[in-house]
Amino acid sequence: MSLLNLTLKVWRQSSANAAGRFQDIEARDIPDHASFLEMMDIVNERLISKGEEPIAFDHDCREGICGMCSMVINGRPHGPEKTTTTCQLHMRKFKSGDTIYVEPFRAKSFPVIKDLAVDRSSFDEIQRAGGFVTVRTGSAIDANALPIGKEIADAAMDAAECIGCGACVAACPNASAMLFVSAKAGQLNSLPQGQPEKTRRTLGMVREMDAQGFGNCSNHYECEAACPKDISVDWISKLNRDYLCSAVVEKEAVAGGGGD
Amino acid sequence: MTAVATSISRFYDSSIGKKILIALTGIVLVGFVIGHMIGNLLIFAGRDAINEYGHFLHTVGHGMGVWVARVVIFGSIILHVILTVQITKKNRASREQRYGVTHKDASSAASRTMILSGLTLLAFFIYHILHFTARAFNDYDTYKTMLHGEQVHDVYKMVIAGFSWAPASIFYIIAMVLLCTHLSHGVASMFQTLGLSNSKTRPLFQAIAGGFAAIILIGNCSIPIAIWLCGYGR
Amino acid sequence: MPLDSKIPSGPIAEKWSKHKRDSKLINPKNKRKYSVIVVGSGLAGSAAAASLSELGYKVKCFCFQDSPRRAHSIAAQGGINAAKNYQNDGDSVYRLFYDTVKGGDFRAREGNVHRLAEVSVNIIDQCVAQGVPFAREYGGALANRSFGGAQVSRTFYARGQTGQQLLLGAYSALNKEIANGGVKMYSRCEMVELVVVNGHAKGIITRDLVTGKIEAHAADCVLLCTGGYGNVFYLSTNAKGCNVTATWRAHKKGAFFANPCYTQIHPTCIPVSGDYQSKLTLMSESLRNDGRVWAPKKKGDNRHPSQIPDEERDYYLERKYPSFGNLAPRDISSRAAKEACDDGRGVGPGGRGVYLDFAEAIKNFGQKTIAERYGNLFDMYERITGENAYQQPMRIYPAVHYTMGGLWVDYNLMSNLPGLHVLGEANFSDHGANRLGASALMQGLADGYFVIPTTIANYLVGEKPGSITTEYPEFKKALEDVNARTSRLLGIKGKRSVDSFHRELGLLVWDKCGMARSREGLTEALGRIPALREEFWNNVTIPGSGEAFNQELEKAGRVADFLEFAELLCLDAREREESCGGHFRVEHQYEDGEAKRDDANFTYAAAWEYTGNFAKPALHKEELKFDEVHLAVRSYK
To answer: How much is the ipTM here?
Structure first.
């Protein structure tokens, strides 16, 4: 194990409406086996011992599944390692002497709460506009009564791996949420259980996505490159297709529900 | 509003609806670009060939054809431009605080500069219309020639004259380079926006878009280069 | 106070049906008048909030995470058990029930466990209907895998992300109800106090973690679905935010805490690499389906694993437990790893690790198949350790993973405090002294989807809806208490960070009350915990204010509660003079090192009552009756 000496340039912003700035912080003697968040813990511990406010950042499971950790590291959401969340990024990916920029996920729809922590409740709102199958507890049929081909189940699982972290939005030059929305809608739209509400879901989720102030997808594919779960932009293509079909078959009664 | 009007207005107001309209108008413009290039290349087939083509355009459908084409093309351009300006404004507004450091992993320079290449092309298009179609600030209207015993506009002479002027050729070539980058992203994007591409087909569509953009660039630029630099027809 | 578990009478297989038949009903119009507070949005919380809202109850749901979808249920990897017998391998509700009681080392309630096994089949149906993409066979039927502690394949899974998929299913149901207006969701909002009015739980006090606003919420009853207390050990596989605060606050308001000493140590985690370590990462137990666990036979063998020939390897699980082999239950596998390391045969930094070797499986099935089964786990292992497990064996070591203890509840999932219901990992009822793999997800969803919607009416029917409001003096008092506690914490301005206390507490509890416990060690811990708590309240430093986003303050409140709870944990462990499941007392073992239960004296659930003195809680015993399952030495040989 070796120790690294790093210069951090960390975004500090005391609250949503305050002006932010980069703060230079020397991070010395960081073990290379530590995770990026453990490096932040060490830095915070030192800030606290000096009587300064620690850097606020979101994190929870620290095993790459809850989607709570964020941070844009040297211009990349979740840092330089492919398909890896910030919490699983380890310092062995950096060298002593590196300067590391650490910024929050930036989007109008992800307002900064403090420092590196942002509010991603816009994602929840989109899900509430149709990201479900309306089935009451207790009303389900036997699980094997509805055979679903392995390929379809696997494809739905590919979409379902999305952890809702928002890296796609952070990486998109337009701050578009299309990768997230397309994965969420796509999972259900490709399964037989999701067919009855497909039109309503697709229109509702897209309408809410727009209402939340996300940008438009212009097919840069930065989202796919940044996604820690390797969600494919194929889902965006599918959402575009589903949207076009839904808009064509939309009936007034359907359009009234979800979203607004 | 009627149900249909509501649906259309919802579609137009949505981000994906706008993108689909941009793709559809893009298809019209791609068609225009192809036709325009093939027509123009007739200049290499001699004076009569291109003049006949010009005359055909103006007389097809009792002279209505050209106007139908113009309405469709102008309409598409206007819609394409309004939509793209609207989404660009929304995209800019979607990230008020910019990043201190950015890193690009996947996007191309072409994709990131669509609005710049597009608006420059719009300016060029207006200039081009004034130059060759409205024939403003020049005497091209007086260029006449005989074709099959009929007096027609001398397109050949006009093109040779137009591109003999270096600034016009240079502007044209710059515009075609921008058109090339615009198409290289736009054409591939069209398939994605219309929901036709996936991991298997996307590389193919990207190759088609790149190849198509290159053909348009070479085809269109061959004319000013031949006239201005090589002295063709002068 | 006598503990009435309210287990219905009659044969085991008919208890739940009978209870459903005998449960009270509230007509649909009246249900709308009742309000329910659900704290926590994991599998139990989301499922309960959604299902109760579907029935018509007005629900308020709270979570400290930024979205209900991030609750720690999401991290469960391996799968969920259900007695579907889709594999035709002899499974049945009874067998799942039996395995779970036996797996729990005969310290769980038979009635609850049988109900769990019964509703397990409905859970799978429900989740599939929601669009949970479980693994499937080519013909379209659901696939199963086998899991620790069972000899049938009854585990349903979605790659290595089963918990995530089930939680997203429950979250989607919750979203549906939020959109319908049936549930009001409060994210980034932490419960910091329970409010008890006339002896009934009638509300909570919360802190908005973004604005710092302290607020009172009243309802006709309260559901705690707040998970376990594994983070008392500081290093565990739990998420950083997991805490004991909600259940501990309820305990201090009168709810009994049962069997806190039953903590589960998971055998397959990535070993600790340094003192900066903030959490431990679990590798799904499903890895043991194909991986072989071994340690070198020789002490202090520092050779690279590939240099150690087969005959110098001790495949100790296969050797000691030939019929279950590498699939021996968690407590047994963990202790066996500890034994090997204590014996000086551990591998990796500090000698705290054993190998989990896939070489044979890769040889038999090919790397592609293994990658399909566990690819994401191998990737995760490489990210964390920098080592490629396709080429060299993984190093694993046990880590705290789950806590079987929790607030005491009766068959209705109601604690001794009327109105307070406790679901999922937060209660104590279904897993006894040890939980089998793939059963936590089952329990959380069973409680939330199928048990509480039936049983809650038994309490509510006797209550006048909306009769208690936040205007009651109990709410004012609770608000004052919370504000005073916050000011006190912020006012200490000492020298040590919150984490430094948490780390010290964790090391102490892991050392004295971890995988192996002794009266002497526990007594020592019981002496040191109050001193550490004392120091915390005099020397902790918390920068910033209470009226803003302040993560140090959040942690401080949780660590303060852990510092109190740890004492009860050690007390319970010292009181239970036997070894069972996750509770291993070195004084009570057979000659071969197996856990030695004392059924004559300890066939009870220990429910502790807070008396105002942490050192002297009152013990209430709920005797456990085994009418169906014959008490036996739990053997996996």
So the answer is: 0.96
